Amino acid sequence: MEIIRTVELMKQYSRQAKLDGNTIGFVATMGYLHTGHMSLVKQARSECDKVVVSVFVNPVQFGPDEDLGKYPRDIKHDEVMLEEFGTDVLFVPDDDQMYPDGYSTYVQVEGIVASVLCGASRPGHFRGVTTVVAKLFNIVDPDISYFGQKDAQQAIIIEKMVKDLNMATKVRVMPVVRDEDGLAMSSRNKYLSSSQRHRALNIFCSLEKAKSLILKDVRNIDEIKKEMKMILVGAGNLSIDYIEILDAKDLGSIDKIKGDVLVAVAVHVDRVRLIDNLLVSCKNTRAQEHKSTCDMCS
Questions:
Q1: pLDDT tens digit string along 95-128?
Q2: Domain 187-287: homologous superfamily in CATH
Q3: Sign of the CA dihedral 250, 253, 255, 257?
Q4: Residue 15 burial by Cβ neighbours in a 10 Å radius (0-12, 13-18, 19+)
Q5: Buried-state track 18-28, b at ≥16 Cβ within 10 A, e below 16
Q6: Fewer Cβ atoms within 10 Å of its own Cβ: the N or the C terminal residue of the chain?
Q7: Cα 187–Cα 298–Cα 225 angle in degrees, nearest 5
Q8: In what order do the strands lie in the sheet with 89-91?
Q9: Would you identify the CATH topology of the domain 2-174?
Q10: Which residues share a beta bridge with 52?
Q11: What does the pLDDT look like over 160-204, one tens digit per residue?
Q12: Where are the chain's structural domains?
């Protein structure tokens, strides 16, 4: 695996790879890699000739009171994992490479898609995300870029940016990867103590409850959210940022459950902020049967 630390060398690598007739698969990360990240790398490896993974903790997507300074980092661990999964290039730029002196250009997707959910509770966050991802796309020039469904809003926003700005890369969104207990894989899970993790499992339980109700033809959104809130509040010391059920395609608000919906949750487990979601299709739900996979809910 080749490790590249400068923008110019990364661009040179990609140009030569394309001249040699190779396709490039790209996974953008902030490091401290886990099985969820590796599922994206594995998919890229199966579809593309070259796989590039970036590790960059992007300062412009963190708010002033967020965890930029203590965000988990372990580049040696990341290198070992990426080697094992056959990554061709690890791109590790520093802040000066990505945001040199005098930097003043930002990319922002506007509208409902960026103003709800985390867009409402983390002002400026997605401006930082779209800016760094646009830069990475320009540097790496990937044919296919892979993102996780756990960050559903981020993936939808990036798809919108790619479409609106006529970017050449294809965006592939891969399913949420969970631990055996149902907790969605996240670098921030490192912050959780064993007791905090146990409480955090109620996030997935609340999503499973929503899915169960939808598949039983419950269509009243307030009723479903009330049931979810009871599970989350019952966890104790768990502060709800948001519980939302939105149109899965564009995150538009809906009056009642119909079509494909995104059930999304953000909570604080003490000082640790976690997000999760489920995509649920309520088409032909009378013919479906849902069995909860959450042990705490069953």
A1: 999 999 999 999 999 999 999 999 999 999 999 9
A2: Pantoate-beta-alanine ligase, C-terminal domain (3.30.1300.10)
A3: positive
A4: exposed
A5: eeeeeebbbbb
A6: C
A7: 70
A8: 2-4, 89-91, 50-55, 24-29, 144-148, 170-174
A9: Rossmann fold (3.40.50)
A10: 26, 89
A11: 999 999 999 999 999 999 999 999 999 999 999 999 999 999 999
A12: 2-174, 187-287
Q: Are 38 and 29 in contact (CB under 8 A)?
A: no
Q: Which of 37, 77, 198, 290 is catalytic?
A: 37
User: Could you tell me which residues come within 8 angstroms of residue 52 by beta carbon, excluding any fewer than 6 positions away?
Assistant: 10, 13, 14, 24, 25, 26, 27, 87, 88, 89, 90, 91, 140, 142
Q: What single-letter amino acid sits at 44?
A: A
Size of the chain, expressed as the number of residues it contains = 298
Tokens for 136, please give them.
Answer: 């990475």
**Cβ pair 151, 119 in contact under 8 A:** no
Is 37 one of the catalytic residues?
yes
Provide the β-strand partners of residue 261: 247, 280
Is residue 112 within 8 Å of residue 251, measured between CB atoms? yes
